[in-house]
Amino acid sequence: MIDFGLAPGEFRDTVFEKQPHHFPGALQERPFAWSDVDQLLHTLEPKVPLMRMYHHGQVPEQAYVDDIVEPGRSRRVLNKARFYEHMGRGATLVINWLEQHSVAAKRLCLEVGRFANSRTSSNAYLSFAGDGTFGQHWDTHDVFVIQLIGRKRWRIFPPTFPLPLTYQTNDKSGHSCPKDPMIEVVLEEGDVFYVPRGWWHHVIPLKVGSFHLSVGSYSPTIFDYVVQTSAKLLEEKIGARKAFSPADYRGTVSELAQELAAVLLDSANADAFELDWIGRERMNAEFSLAALDVAATPLSGDSLLSLSTFRVPTLDTGELLVNGLQLQLEPVCQTIVAVLSDSTELSFEALCARLDSYSADALKKAVLDLTRHDIVSIQR
Question: Three-state secondary structure along the chain?
Answer without folding.
Answer: CECCCCCHHHHHHHCCCCCCEEECCCECCCCCCHHHHHHHHHHCCCCCCCEEEECCCECCHHHCEEEEEECCEEEEEECHHHHHHHHHCCCEEEEECHHHCCHHHHHHHHHHHHHHCCEEEEEEEEECCCCCCCCCECCCCEEEEEEEEEEEEEEEECCCCCCCCCCCCHHHCCCCCCCCCCEEEEECCCCEEEECCCCEEEEEEEEEEEEEEEEEEECCCHHHHHHHHHHHHHCCCHHHHCCCCCCCCHHHHHHHHHHHHHHHCCHHHHHHHHHHHHHCCCCCCCCCHHHHCCCCCCCCCCCEEEECCCCCCECCCCCEEECCEEECCCHHHHHHHHHHCCCCCEEHHHHHHHCCCCCHHHHHHHHHHHHHCCCEEEEC
